[in-house]
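Suppose you are handed only two things: the residues of a chain and a line of SMILES describing flavin-adenine dinucleotide. What would the bound structure be? This form records exactly that question and the answer produced for it, so the two can be stored side by side and reused later without any lookup.

QUESTION INPUTS
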Amino acid sequence: MSGDIVACRVAAVEAASPEVRIIKIEPASGELFDWRAGQYASFKICDQEPRDYSIANAPGSGAIELHIRRSGAGGVSDFICDDLKPGDPVDVQGAFGGAYFRARHDGPLLAIAGGTGLAPMKAIVEAALASDLKQDVHLYFGVRDETELYLERHFIKLMHDHPNFRFVTVISEPKENSGRRSGLVSDAVAADFQLLYGFQCYIAGPPVMVDASVKMLALKSVPKHDIFADAFYTEKQMQAKGEPRPDWT
Ligand SMILES: Cc1cc2nc3c(=O)[nH]c(=O)nc-3n(C[C@H](O)[C@H](O)[C@H](O)COP(=O)(O)OP(=O)(O)OC[C@H]3O[C@@H](n4cnc5c(N)ncnc54)[C@H](O)[C@@H]3O)c2cc1C
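ANSWER OUTPUT
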């Protein structure tokens, strides 16, 4: 695996929810590499080990947006959530991943996000809507409870601006009766569509949610070549799978 390494700096850190930070990263000098909406990159933040994070914005703005959730295991994501500040150095290597937005598709688009899987789905949905796509675009956002929701207003505004865009939040372990859908996000999609043949489907989030969604889509007659998925494996899971790391030399 290879890609350009670009020296960057943290431009902003925002608490989007108690456990999620939205980070803006800009090149220290020069330009970022090219990427496609939905891809990820490898980030070496301060003196931490490199980690993969999905890019949450479509290319073109000169900056990278990340959504990072605290894992609570004392690793890089905890450092990011607790200690990262504007000005900190970040080396970024990218871009990677095949689950990027395909503009040449004339059927509807379905995006399924679990937790910070919202990041690449945001990039894809925004690229689709910016390209003046006339087809329906559905975004399902699954979280465990209400405290994990973020950017809800952003997507509700996007729904008002684009009549072909539909945004649904699904909460698997609701703590209150907020009127939102409850259950597993893959079950909510399954309940809403009898068949999904002709849809182009994108999925990102925890491996268990991605696996359940891929199985559900197959049962709804989506051929494999119309499913694009990125599971957020941890470093340990990647090593167990024998996945290569980007070369940082
Ligand atoms: C394609 C892709 C995209 C992703 N996108 C996102 C995203 O947009 N947002 C997001 O929040 N997450 C994303 N992730 C997950 C992210 O890369 C990290 O796995 C996550 O942030 C957890 O990292 P961590 O260091 O906090 O925890 P862990 O990797 O679980 O580490 C916890 C502790 O275990 C130690 N440890 C880890 N691996 C080993 C090992 N092999 N041997 C010994 N000790 C070890 C660490 O040093 C640390 O102390 C993505 C993953 C992939 C593969």
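WHAT STANDS OUT: The radius of gyration is 18 Å. The chain has a mean pLDDT of 94.
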